[in-house]
Amino acid sequence: MKNHLSVSELIKQNKQKQRIFTSIREKALPFLLFICAVVSVFTTLGIVFTLLFETVTFFKQVPLIEFITRKEWLPFFKSDPSYGILPLISGTLMVAVIAMIVAVPLGLAAAIYLSEYASERTRRFLKPILEVLAGIPTIVYGFFALTFVTPLLQKFIPELSFFNALSPGIVVGIMIIPMIASLSEDAMNAVPNSIREGALGLGSTRLEVAVKVVLPAALSGIIASFVLAISRAIGETMIVTIAGGATPTLTMDVTDSIQTMTAYIVQVSLGDATYGSTVYYSIYAVGMTLFIFTLMMNLLAQFISKKFREAY
């Protein structure tokens, strides 16, 4: 009898300890999560305020109107420097447009195949291989564009410069294919199978179901993946720095050397400008411009996702 009571008491004590531990954990975990959230928010605010403060310092030396409207970006000229952001914006957008021309059809086709045609076994095999592209360092992509893609393109386009917009644009497009494919496939998988079965029951082929039924139903997620991919292409750094060149010119010729906003930031950050000079502060103005572009893309993706989201 005594042994029975002692065992019962031990069980009761053990349960009490577990309840105390559970109570401490339940109270401590929300606090730790709150601290993590606060750190993330203050880190973001710190980045924004740093950009804003240094950008204001730049615009005290260079008028905002000149920064927006002038068509020459010549910050290293000692006699008459020019700080017109348009050449850097045109180079950035040119690379992003070429990247989307490459990535959208390939990424969407991959998403349609994985979602509508591939078996479960094939999907488990192909999707990780496709996502390996997202894990390759961008500097490797940059040298791939410079040493393989550019010489290959020069065989078909002899007038193509060694540094150009076409080669990095294509490689950036290859890099963002997994983003479009993965996000688009997730959006297509969210479409209920009952809609597919209904379309098949009415006599539609699998291709008609994929193109005319599933794609419109998943349109919000697919378009959001496109916008996020554009944002990723605009913010790409190493590929355009290595293969795009350092010639900020306002041109639409993809065979010429160009310079993007990120490539200029890298150039100045390597020590081409002294601390406190106008050229030094210009990287913050360019960074703020890039931040505004990517922020607008992300907000647009959220708006599209909420505006056209289908509820099933």
Describe the structure.
With 312 residues, the protein is mostly helical. The protein has helices spanning 2-61, 64-69, 86-117, 120-135, 138-156, 166-189, 193-201, 206-217, 219-234, 238-243, 261-272, 278-307, and strands at 73-74, 82-83. Strand 1 (73-74) and strand 2 form a beta hairpin. Helix 6 (166-189) runs antiparallel to helix 9. The mean pLDDT is 85.
The gist of it:
By secondary structure, this protein is mainly alpha-helical.
Rg from alpha-carbon coordinates: 27 Å
Total strand count, please?
2
Order of helices and strands: HHEEHHHHHHHHHH
For this structure, the quaternary state is: single chain
Average pLDDT number: 85
Helix content: over 70%
Distance between the termini: 62 Å
Large-scale geometry:
globular
Q: Please, how many helices? A: 12
> Which secondary-structure class do the elements indicate?
mainly alpha
> Which strand-content bin applies to the residues?
under 5%
Poorly predicted spans: none
Main sheet specs: 2 strands, antiparallel
Kindly report the spatial arrangement of strands forming the biggest sheet: 1-2
